[in-house]
Amino acid sequence: MATAIKEPNGSMPVDATNIPAEAHPLAEKPAEIASNINYHAKFSPHFSPFKFEPEQAYYATAESVRDRLIQQWNETYNHFHKVDPKQTYYLSMEYLQGRALTNAIGNLNIQHAYADALNKLGHDLEDITEQEKDAALGNGGLGRLASCFLDSMATLNLPAWGYGLRYRYGLFKQKITKEGQEETAEDWLEKFSPWEVVRHDVIYPVRFFGHVEVNPTGTRKWVEGEVIRALAYDVPIPGYKTKNTISLRLWEAKAVAEDFNLFQFNDGQYESAALLHSKAQQICAVLYPGDATEDGKLLRLKQQFFLCSASLQDIIFRFKERRDGKGSWQWSEFPSKVAVQLNDTHPTLAIPELMRLLMDEEGLGWDEAWDVTTRTIAYTNHTVLPEALEKWSLEVMRKLLPRHIEIIEEIDKRVCSSPL
């Protein structure tokens, strides 16, 4: 069955049998692009096959563009994996990307070809781009700056990745009614985002609460508490008129099947049975949850540590992956291959978390771990306004991150005792 398509004037639907539904992932000619869009409308279906209205056309068009990005994405990853340069990793709680479709076809210099292809399918490019919802990953200058940095680094052919959180509802959407301003949850993921690729093989444990266990050898280990899994979703970031396509890796918080208590559920204790699943969903529910209560403070701190821990575990994994098969190596090489840039105060827990990972998981001593950490992590401060310089009470920190309080107190002790 051919895909039913509306003519440009929106009147009678027409039959696109003259446009084959064939996959042309790297197409540049309008006819082949139209064929690839038609292919995704038929064989990557998300809607009823009996209509091809602007919303359906947007998703099929986005998937057609994504085909091309994935090819460049894989080539970029393989190139940097082989060359093994020093790579920048940008950690930010916010990203304000704008419309990915317009940005992608502009950077790839194929906007005119896509406009012609969509005309063949009975649509205008401008109408299709209007269908895209803004990714609710940020709300202001901090997020816009982060996205501009990623775009610029991709354009300059720099080896760089961004890390953030995959917020389910972002902040809010606003409506003006007779009663005034009304705020409702942002629904940018109500259907799905065609730009993200879930990486089911990239998942890391992130611990909260628990206590510190001291082993007979004197080494310390953070144990028990809650463990939430961080699952990676990757978004391609293409450079302008270059093949370099880098990644924005977003973390989603997940609990696993073992965390669902089937016996409690069958006993009617429905909320208790899925308690950890509920707590996991809260972490990436919204950007900047209210922190007027202790629970709100704990949730904000959870968000920030979740981003830091998952990202650093991933960075360390990639560093080791690139060392495989290259003979012996030392942790002193880490800062020559990794640069972690913290966007404002939100990801600063990356400093004690990298110390913990290096000492407790990798077996480094304090001095070596501190040397690696201080040569790896850099920090950007955007303002000195008190509301932007976050403060956390010792009680909240010690409750949620007991091992990190030990590390922070030791850092403070050593800095205060060192000569100026």
UniProtKB/TrEMBL annotation:
<protein>
    <recommendedName>
        <fullName>Alpha-1,4 glucan phosphorylase</fullName>
        <ecNumber>2.4.1.1</ecNumber>
    </recommendedName>
</protein>
<dbReference type="GO" id="GO:0005980">
    <property type="term" value="P:glycogen catabolic process"/>
</dbReference>
<dbReference type="GO" id="GO:0030170">
    <property type="term" value="F:pyridoxal phosphate binding"/>
</dbReference>
<keyword id="KW-0119">Carbohydrate metabolism</keyword>
<comment type="function">
    <text>Allosteric enzyme that catalyzes the rate-limiting step in glycogen catabolism, the phosphorolytic cleavage of glycogen to produce glucose-1-phosphate, and plays a central role in maintaining cellular and organismal glucose homeostasis.</text>
</comment>
<dbReference type="GO" id="GO:0008184">
    <property type="term" value="F:glycogen phosphorylase activity"/>
</dbReference>
<keyword id="KW-0808">Transferase</keyword>
<keyword id="KW-0328">Glycosyltransferase</keyword>
<dbReference type="InterPro" id="IPR000811">
    <property type="entry name" value="Glyco_trans_35"/>
</dbReference>
<dbReference type="GO" id="GO:0005737">
    <property type="term" value="C:cytoplasm"/>
</dbReference>
<dbReference type="Pfam" id="PF00343">
    <property type="entry name" value="Phosphorylase"/>
</dbReference>
<comment type="similarity">
    <text>Belongs to the glycogen phosphorylase family.</text>
</comment>
<keyword id="KW-0663">Pyridoxal phosphate</keyword>
